[in-house]
Every structure is written in C-alpha cells, then in structure tokens.
Amino acid sequence: MKVLIIEDEKDLVRVLKRGLEENSFTVETAYDGEEGLYLAENFPYDAIVLDLMLPGIQGFQILERLRQSKKDVPVIVLTAKGDVEERVKGLNLGADDYMVKPFNFSELIARLRAVLRRHKGSSSSSIEIADLKIDMNSNTVYRGGKEIKLTAKEYKILEYLALNRGKVISRTELLEHIYDINSDPDSNVIDVYINYLRKKLDKGFEKKLIHTVRGAGYILKE
What we know:
Elements: E1 2-6, H1 10-22, E2 26-30, H2 33-42, E3 47-51, H3 59-68, E4 75-79, H4 84-93, E5 97-100, H5 105-119, E6 126-129, E7 132-135, E8 140-143, E9 146-148, H6 152-163, H7 171-178, H8 189-201, E10 210-213, E11 217-220
Parallel strand pairs: 1-2, 1-3, 3-4, 4-5
Antiparallel strand pairs: 6-7, 7-8, 8-9, 10-11
C-alpha cells in the first residue's frame, strides 16, 4: 500500500518513512503544502498522512481541496494542537482520523491500517480467501494452515490484490501502488513477481487463486 507523508519536519519524516517501509508500506514524501497538494492530486495513494502547519498551502486547505475534487483517499491528520475545535474542523473537512504530536508510532500504524480497512470495506485485520489467510497486522500469509514466506515486494502485491479481491487489477495500477514515483521498475517486473507468488501460493494446490485476465491484468479470487 502506498502512503504519502506531507510534513515539514524532516527528522520526523525520516522516522515515519523508515518505520512505514519496515511495515511493508511504499512511502513518498512532501515537505511543503504546494508539493504535497500536487502529488496528492496527480498520483494515486492508498492513504495520506497530513500535517496541518506547513510552509505555503496549509493542511486544512489541502484537505479541503482534495475533498472538493472528490478525492476519497483516506487522510490521517497530524497536528501539534489538540484542541477540540481544530479536531472538529478537520473531521468536518473530511479527515478520516486525527493524531496529536507527539504520538506513538505503533498507534499511527494501527490507525493507518484501520482507515485503510474501512476504506476497502473491511472491519477485520485479516483477509481470508478460500484457505488463504493474510494477517495485515503481522504481514504474515498462510495457505492451508501453513505459513508462506514472502519477500516485501511479494507481500505488497498480494496484499493489494487481496484488498481488491474479485477485481481485475492492471499491471499499471499495481506498479503505481507498489513503487514510488522515483523508481524505474522493469516493464515486466509485475509479471515476474506474480510468477513468484504463483509458485509459492498456488503450486501444489488444486484450487488456484491468482488468475490472469488477458489484456487486463490480474485478479485474486476463489
């Protein structure tokens, strides 16, 4: 899942980026409101972590612009202020959650995963498809009760397909949600990782879960 952090405290951004990447998120960053708004409006993200006090365009303005343009990406607001009026304003503008600095990183991870689940219409931290189980809290995968060891990239692709179960996902969409905008993955990198996943998840099982839709992409279903 790809997250955009819009925050001007560079030390905090480095900590957040490293921690999120260690928890299987792809992370992009912006240090001012103008860049943050540009990225949020022009590139796909699964969630945004948004500071309110930013150089240039303020966080509330970014949030308002996104909701006016019908961008429904989940937004967690970060702020040094914890007064009720500000929280109410942020929630009324369309924020999905609110955290006051300083905050606990593990709580941010939990809240981020919660808003992502709600956005995808799920209330559970695990996804089950046939005998496949994905625990999004621990980033572990089981098939037929046996743990399947996946690399970080394999897990990201599988998680995204699972959160969109039953929906055909194009190679382009997978690339956009797995890699950041500065990376230059090979044109067939998604096909390579799908092949790896098939060998680990489907090989030896009668029921195949990863399917190719010719000319369209991939779908995870029973």
